[in-house]
Design brief:
The protein is mostly helical and 154 residues long. It is built from six helices and no strands.
Length: 154
């Protein structure tokens, strides 16, 4: 059993001599990255740069951009350091996905859906107004020179 461990350790490089020293991220850059990550994960609403990124992603991109392209664009919009993991976590947010879906529908589809949902209300209001106008034939309208609805001109 000890010989298997020895064989395994022979293939493992010595950490102090063969591996380059890991340089920690600069303090300012690291703090900014952590702050951005917290904003992506914990903000209740999308920040303006997140909305602008979603608009670029949905409205301006003809082909789906690569992760690197998305990361570069998001860095430019946020003006903070971002990693690929942060971009993926932003795109995984439910409100971000909902906003992208809303943008993909477009303004014409939004207007159509809004009208279709309110259409029964419009029909009912029109019917009530028509019934009220027909039953109030004796009411004089100022726009018609004081004549009632059913009266003929003199």
């Amino acid at each position: 059993m000890g010989s298997l461990v020895a064989q395994y350790l022979v293939g493992v490089p010595d950490e102090t001599t063969s591996l380059p020293a890991v340089q920690p991220a600069p303090k300012l850059n690291r703090e900014a990255m952590l702050r951005t990550g917290r904003a992506i994960r914990y903000n209740a609403t999308l920040l303006p740069w997140m909305l602008a990124y979603a608009e670029w992603l949905v409205l301006e991109c003809v082909e789906p951009p690569s992760l690197t392209q998305r990361c570069v664009r998001a860095r430019g919009l946020s003006r903070t350091p971002l990693t690929n993991r942060l971009i993926k976590s932003l795109e995984a947010r439910e409100d971000f996905a909902d906003y992208c879906d809303e943008l993909a529908k477009g303004p014409l589809e939004q207007a159509r859906a809004k009208f279709a949902s309110a259409f029964p209300t419009y029909v009912e209001a029109h019917r009530k107004a028509l019934d009220a106008a027909a039953s109030a034939a004796s009411v004089a309208l100022p726009a018609q020179g004081g004549r009632a609805i059913g009266e003929a001109r003199k």
